[in-house]
Amino acid sequence: MRSIWKGSIAFGLVNVPVKVYTATEDHDIRFHQVHAKDGGRIKYDRVCTVCGKSVQYADIDKAYESPEGDKVILTDEDFAKLPAAEKHEIPVLQFVPSEQIDPILFDKSYYLEPDSSTPKAYVLLATTLERIDRTALVHFTLRQKTRLAALRVRDGMLVLQTLLWPDEVRAVEFESLDGVAEPKSQEIKMAETLVETMSDDFDPDQYTDEYQIELKRLLDEAIASGTGKVPEQPEAAPAEMDAEVVDLVAALQRSLEASGRRAAGSADDNGKAAPAKKATAKKTAAKKTAEKPAKKAAKKTAARKGA
Asked: How far is Cα 215 from Cα 208, in angstroms, rounded to an integer?
């Protein structure tokens, strides 16, 4: 990894020099746009709508148009006049309980590496954050843009996660939820049982990006064919679809059956079998009891005929 930023964390009067690295990477396969007729690459040109000439990036300024139609053009010098946090400093604003930060606010993540021959201050800050179970709110300026960010610890290392500003999260109300009846107790109980059967510890390694795997397979087949195109494959017969389940309880029951555990056969808090199994057992016992006299009568009849 290569660092994208160098600076220091201002923790009171303590200065913590750090290097910043992008914590995540995109593994999506990227494509070029080409002309479908001859495969030629599609290129884009910055053309001025007034003079019709191509414009170099260095000669481009930014324009803003108000809702009323007023246009304002800003240059790089104009942007340089705007107030911004110190470009190479990450000031700690305050420490807040970690659970108070809504995950919807998290944006991009960055690793912080100590940039000092004696990283004692780095280890001190990381250890303190782990012990108090709080997250540090900081200002972080990257590419001339100042963001609010959360500073926390992951596997002994400091991690910086930029946060969206509150007005960047949309407020939403769906009319389709107005007046909806509360779930019935039976539905809630069965849903909770279904959740229990599907519960486990989180292990991200057990999940794979099936789309990217299949896309890579298609590309490998196209390369192996030597034609540059994916060989045609026979279309698989469409799977038969189950009839739509209207009853929510029936849908939950079928989900439980699919997970290998029927709700009626689940154990209660004392580990005893559920009433449904008891009822089944009673019916079976009654059936066997009724069969015994019939068998005895059949034996006596056969003995008389033999005599």
From this structure: 13
The more confidently predicted of residues 259 and 205 is 205
Confidence at residue 281, expressed as pLDDT on a 0 to 100 scale: 45
Q: Label residue 164 exposed, middle or buried (CB < 10 Å: 0-12, 13-18, 19+).
A: middle
Alpha-carbon separation of residue 194 from 182, 203, 206, 221 (angstroms): 19, 20, 21, 41
pLDDT band at 266 (very low <50, low <70, confident <90, very high): very low
Q: Which residues contact 22 (CB under 8 A, 6 or more apart)?
A: 1, 4, 108, 109, 110, 111
| pLDDT over threshold 90, residue 198 | no
The pLDDT value given to residue 122: 94
pTM: 0.65
Q: For position 116, what pLDDT does the model report?
A: 86
In 42-182, which ranges are E strands? Answer: 62-65, 71-74, 89-97, 106-114, 134-142, 145-154, 157-163
Phi, psi (deg, nearest 5) at residue 202: -75, 125
Contact yes or no for 190/256 (Cβ under 8 A): yes
CA dist., res. 111 & res. 163, Å (int): 15
Given a cut of 90, is residue 76 above it in pLDDT?
no
Which whole-number Å values give the CA distances from 233 to 221, 229, 243, in the listed order? Answer: 11, 12, 29
